[in-house]
Amino acid sequence: MPRVSTMDRPAVVRGLGVVMVALVAGSVFLTYAMFTKLFSDDVPVTIRSSSAGLQLNANADVKLRGVIVGRVDEITSEEGQAVIHLALDPEQQPLIAADVQAFVVPKTLFGEKYVDLQPVAQSSGQPIEAGDEIVQAALPSDVENLLTDLDPLLTALNPEDLSYVLTALSDALSGQGETLGTGLETLSAYLQKMTPLAPELVEDITLLGDTARTYADAMPEIGTTLRNAVVTGNTLTARRAQLQSLFVETAAFATSAEALFDRSGDDFITLARDSRPTLELLADYSPTIGCVLQGIDRLMPAIDSTFRNNRANVSIEFAPRSPREYDGRDTPRLPAATGGPGSLSPSCATLPGTRYTKKRPAPGMSDSLLEELGVGGDLGKRVPLTAPTVVRSGGSAAEAEQVKAIVAASLGVEPKDVPDVATALYGPVLRGAEVSLG
User: Fold this and answer.
1) Is residue 35, in this structure, part of any structural domain at all?
2) Do 332 and 403 share a domain, yes or no?
3) How many domains does the chain have?
4) DSSP character string of 403-426
5) Which residues constitute the domain of residue 117?
6) In this model, does residue 42 exceed pLDDT 50?
7) What is the DSSP string of 135-166?
8) CA-CA distances (angstroms) from residue 320 to 386, 403, 408?
9) DSSP state of 196
10) Residues 299, 367: one domain?
11) Alpha carbons 404 and 344: distance in angstroms, whole number
C-alpha cells in the first residue's frame, strides 16, 4: 500500500484548521483582555458625586500629580447620584492616600475629561484600599456651565461666518505680538499702580452710585427744566430780531452811559458824598416812610372834601394873643429818642386811620410829653372863647362885622381898628365857612 503524506490526510488538515482558528481566536481574545486589562489585578474604588460631568467616559485616565495611576472602569447611577467606578494600578495603589480628593477636569477646553486625584494638605498617609469610596468629590462646574451656555450659541452660529470672523481676527493680530505684549505690560503697570488705590476707587464708585440715584430722583424736575428750556429757546428763536435790537440798544446805552460817567463821574461822586447825611436821616426814618405814604393816602379823601366845589371848607381856630414875646423859656425840650413812652423816635402811631385817637393817644404822646416839649395841655383840646360863627350872607353889614371880628382876633387888635379893605379881601374866602374863635 503506498505511503500517504501527512498533509494529504483529511484528519490532519482538519486538525490544523482547528488549531489555526483557535490561535486566531486566542490572539483576538488576548488582545481584548490586554486592552481591557481583564487579567490585571486592579484595585477597585468608587467616587460618589452629584454629577459626573460631560465627556467623562469609561477607560478615561485617572492621574495623581500628572502620572496615570488607573482608569475609569464604568459610570453608573444610584439614588440620584453618579457613581464613578475606578480601577487603580496595584503598583501605584500604595502611593495613593485613602483621604485623597478627586476632581473631574477636561484635558482641553473641548477635550475628554479625566479624574485628577489630589492629596489633601493634612493627609493621614494611610494608603487607599480596594472597595474604598470617595464619598464627595469636588467637581468644577465653571467650564461645564460655560460649555452648556456656549452650546446654543455655537449651534446658532453659521460656521462660514464664524470662520470669516476668526480669519479676520487672525489677520488683524498677525505680526502684532510685540505691540500687544507692550500694551499688556503697560496695562499691568497701570494696574499695579492702581491696586493701592482700590479702596478709594471703590469709595468713589459708591459715591458715584449715590450721585446717580440723586440724579435719578431729580430726573422729573430735570426733564421739566429741559422742556422749559426748549420753550424758552423757541421763544428766543422766534423773537431773535427783537433780541438783536435789544442787544444793539443795550450797546448804545452802554456807550452813552460810559460817556456820561466819563464826563460827570466826579459830579456823581460829589453827589454821593453830599447825599450821605440826607440818606442817613432817611435811614433813621425809614420805618415810617411806608406808613407816612399810607397816611397821606388816607388823608386824600378829607383834603378833597375840604376843597370841594372850588372852595375852602375849613374850621379855623385862633388862639388868644400871647401876653409876652417868644423867648428861650419856650424852647421845646426834646426827650431822649429811645423808642419807648415819652420818646421821639420815628413812629406812625399818630397818623390818621391808626388805632390811636385823641381820647386814646398813642404811647409817648401823653400830656407829660407835651409838657416836656414845652407845649402843655392835652393834644387837640382847646376851649373856645366864643361859639362857632358861620359866615353866610355875602356883602352884608353882618358879614362885614363877622369878618372884622375874625381878622381882629387873628391880629390881636380891636374890631374897630380893622380897615374896611380887610372885609373885602377876607370876605370871599370866609364866606360860607364855619369859624370858631378860641
Assistant:
1) no
2) no
3) 3
4) HHHHHHHHHTS-GGGS-HHHHHHH
5) 40-147
6) yes
7) -------HHHHHHHHHHHHHHHS-HHHHHHHH
8) 12, 17, 11
9) G
10) yes
11) 40
CB neighbours (10 Å) of residue 276? 10
pTM: 0.32
Shared domain for 332 and 420, answered yes or no, is no
Which residue, of 116, 147, 178, is where some domain finishes? Answer: 147
| Residue 356 shares a structural domain with residue 375 | yes
Write the single-letter amino acid at 46. Answer: T
What percentage of the chain reaches a pLDDT higher than 70?
Answer: 67
CA distance 9 to 373: 175
Rounded to the nearest 5°, which phi and psi values hold at 51?
-155, 140
pLDDT digits (tens, 9 = 90+) for 352-409: 666 666 566 655 555 444 454 444 444 334 334 444 444 444 556 777 777 777 777 7
Do 399 and 301 lie in a common domain?
no
| 365 and 398 both lie in a single domain | no
CB 400 within 8 A of CB 423: yes
User: 3-state SS of the chain: helix, strand, coil percent to 5?
Assistant: 55, 15, 35
Residue 289 within any structural domain of the chain: yes
CA–CA separation, 51 vs 138, rounded Å? 10
Query: Are the CB atoms for 292 and 351 separated by under 8 Å?
Result: yes
Same domain, 126 and 111: yes
Residue 336: DSSP 8-state: P
Which long-range contacts does 283-292 make (Cβ < 8 Å, 24+ apart)?
284/346, 285/346, 286/346, 287/346, 287/348, 288/346, 288/347, 288/348, 291/348, 291/351, 292/348, 292/351
Strands (E) in 247-350, as ranges, are 317-318
Model confidence pLDDT, tens digit, residues 246-268? 999 999 999 999 999 899 889 98
375 and 389 share one domain: no
Within a domain: 301: yes
CA distance linking residue 16 with residue 387, whole number of Å: 180
Place of cell 428763536: 237
Among 115, 147, 179, residue at a domain's last position: 147
In a domain, 244, yes or no: no
Q: What separation, in Å, do the N-terminal and C-terminal C-alpha atoms of the chain show? A: 203
Quickly count: other Cβ atoms within 10 Å of residue 208's Cβ. Answer: 10
Burial (Cβ within 10 Å: 0-12, 13-18, ≥19) of residue 350: middle
- Spatial separation of the C-alpha atoms in residues 350 and 358, rounded to whole Å: 9
Burial class (CB in 10 A: 0-12, 13-18, 19+), 153: exposed
| Total residue length of the chain | 438
- Report the pLDDT averaged over residues 47-53: 68
Query: Virtual CA dihedral for 33, 35, 36, 42, nearest 10 degrees?
Result: 100
What is the residue type of 326? Answer: Y
